[in-house]
Amino acid sequence: MTKIKAKPHLTETLLARDWIAGLERGLAVIESFDENNPRMTAHQVGERCGLSRTAARRYLLTLQHLGFVSTDNKLYWLTPRVMRLGQAYLASARLPRIVQPVLQSVSVTLQEVSYLAVLDAGEVVYVSRNGPNRAMNSGFVLGARVPGHVTSAGLLLLANLSSDQLEEWITTHHFPAYTPFTISNPDDLRKELKRIRQQGWSLSEQQFDLSIRGIAVPLKNLRGDLMGALSIQMPIQNESSDAAVKRVAPVLQKAAQSLRDII
Fold this sequence. Notes:
Beta-Lactamase, 10 strands, globular, two-stranded antiparallel ribbon, Arc Repressor Mutant, subunit A
């Protein structure tokens, strides 16, 4: 039987008879909008999605009819209705709901913002968050997507990929430098990920924001499958790197251990 080859970020192939190309293209149209392309013509959307202008326009008009897109008859942009797609995950996913009470305990203990993050196509997605009131306005918002190479959670999750998966990701991505401390060289990144894999936790300082430090540990189930990363984000000026790791890592590791038999 003919199969559809898995995308780089997917793990399984799919029988051709089960593949709905229109759904893939419609989602690609939604995903074509981003911070650098918030409003586009049908031609621009088509260029970003590999569609003709006519086909892109039909998808946009359908999405407009469904309430996901708005237009002034020249430019198109997403509406807040698109957020329902992400909210559906946050409302229905089992893992964030199970982890949330543990994150709350971690935040109370450390008085820092705690996160559960997962990896999606090489990007970190923060799917649960808790923190003290003084800190809730800092850090990443719930649902934020961040390049994997600039946060402690991202580095931890990348370090736990298989060798083949990691090499494919490294060879198909570029690594923008957000600060002078960002690891943007592939060889340096390989070395750092190897070190993280060996020590079992990650530390990221000033790689995405000069004022922020992050520490992360793996969250695994009883079979040893990696389910995500538990992490803390904190101001960097309050203590030394060694002191922060000594204070935070054991609490995160204990929290991860407490979740092993229920995730």
